[in-house]
Amino acid sequence: MLKQFPLTATATFAGVLAFSVVATPALSQDSRAIIDKMMDAHKAAGFTTATYEEFTQDGTTVVLGDVNFEVPISFSIAEEKIAFDVTVSAPEMVLVKPAETDISFTFEEISIPEFTAAVDYNLPVDEDIKAPYPVSATTRMVNYTGFNVSYPKTSQFENATGTGPFADLAKLIHFGIKGSADRETLVQLDTRTKMSNGSEQITSQSGIDMLDRRDGRIARYEAAEQTGRDTFAAQEGKEGSSFEYSVGRVSMRDLNVMPLLAFMGIAESSEEPVEVSSSYSAKDIKGKATTPGEETTFSIGLVSMGRLTYAPGNLAEILDSIKEVETAEDKNGKSAPDMFGEIIANLGTYHLTNFQLQDLAVDNDEVKMRLSSFDIEEVAPEGFSTAAFSGLELGSGREDSSVAVDQFTITDVHYPNVLEGLAFAGENMDKPVQRMLEYMPEIGSITVNGITVLEDGDQMGSLEGMSLSLANYINSIPTQIALRTDTLKLNPEEMDANLRALLTGDEVTVNQNLDLQWDESTNTLSISDLRVEMSEGFNALVTLKFSGVTRNLIENPDNAEEALLSVMFDHALVRVEDAPLARKFLQKMAEEQQMDEEALADMMVGQMMTSIQPIAGTDFGKELKDKLTLFLLNPEKLEIEMAPQQPVPFTQLMAGAMMAPQTLPTVLGATIRN
């Protein structure tokens, strides 16, 4: 399962651990005795080395010299042992007003001019996997100051236990989270990580300021600036590449690591969601990726998140399920979807109130992108309430072509249960439609405003607005649909040559409307307003109504033939009016054929009537021929209505179409009028 472990983010770990080992409150009237007990507490937590070489005291201020701590850390995941050694050293540590309570060592202030943390990794290596892994990391921290800091005595963590792969680290982790500080500042934190393939990662943070750190929580974390550079070594004849970035002020509120520790099996878990952070923001993000022959730059004005909660899962259970999947050991009759279901269930659940991104820009030789904002709200594993972006511009770096979107919004998105879909698919191979529906999300609405498409500087098309509303879902199928298209403009030059010849303006404007609804109380399916309008002269309206459309047809689409036995045709209307495009078409064809327009219209309609024999011989067919010919010559209005006196069973229509099509106009009550 696990062939290597991506421990590249060593700066955070080494920095936090360094805070815990160098900020060592001690000293009261018997200073050396308290220091020795404090060092013993570190060793009880898992440190192999906790020493100082020099000790001086001036009133209530104590200075320790040459302070060193070492701690080996190891755990196993999927029978692969992960190990690394952390060493922290400080030439000088100043402690003010040390004191000792029943549960902790405390001090009013700690200041450390400079200290370093080094991490040496001992990771499992699989020769078949070429991905690089970290070899070592060093962190240098400058001017640490802590106020009202406390660290726990052995009694506060010696009984700490855990489950899963990190159980042996329970004492060490609880030693860290039992400490506290009213405020901690760090002027500079620099980290350099070396990778197995010669690549290197360098990060630097400045102006770090933390408030109220206690019980695994930090009330406020801020960093004034962060920069980084990743250098990727050349491999197998390929040139190297690099990525560098900078981040302005970073701010977090109410950061809580306890839910993550609960997931790891080190802290008490909760079935209810627990706050991980109340807010996060990062400003003025900039980056540059350089590869052979290409450079890509990006910038983001702001990234922010609202309240994030997490109901912890169980890592140990996940690893056990993965082992079952990989080795097929003792499945106890469980199917593959059941086992994957256990894995996903043990990931836990989360909820994010909102995420926002502002002022994104990406540039290289091929693509230029701008995005004013992106927002997503109420995010959870089941879906999200709203996602929207505005001010999107996507263009080519080499050509004057682009797509721009003023606004896009999608609401009320609910994801399908993939595991239920897998289980259904495995047991119902004879239901292809339902198997597809099991993976379909439910969407409340989609709205798009202000689309513009340019090609070589010319506008190819635009859309003022479009909205799609979907509601009353049954079996992942919406039973109420409303679709609106407002002012879709197309460049005739991009259309088919025959259609283009009919158009006279510089652009074609299309408006469209659709309302579809299924009424469960009456079992009717209605298309009440399907409308298309073209500025060049074409207006069409279609309405349809069917009864006997039962819920069974929607819930069991693979049995549609059976459900269709109850469906009946009630009414239909097709109306075309104000359609000079029809006359333009006739004029163009008459000119090409060198024929009189009336003769051509009669010939064209006659050919069409031949294709619908034997309906053409009915009274309706004859009237259709006359009305359609008149419409081509004077396209003001053509209306065909089907209004039977009683609803007609769908099966009767199909039988009539095959056996006696000439009866259909009478059965359907068909009429035609200009």
Automatic annotation (TrEMBL):
The keyword Signal applies. It comes from the Bacteria. This is DUF945 domain-containing protein. Residues 1-28 form the signal peptide. It comes from Pseudovibrio exalbescens. Keywords: Signal.
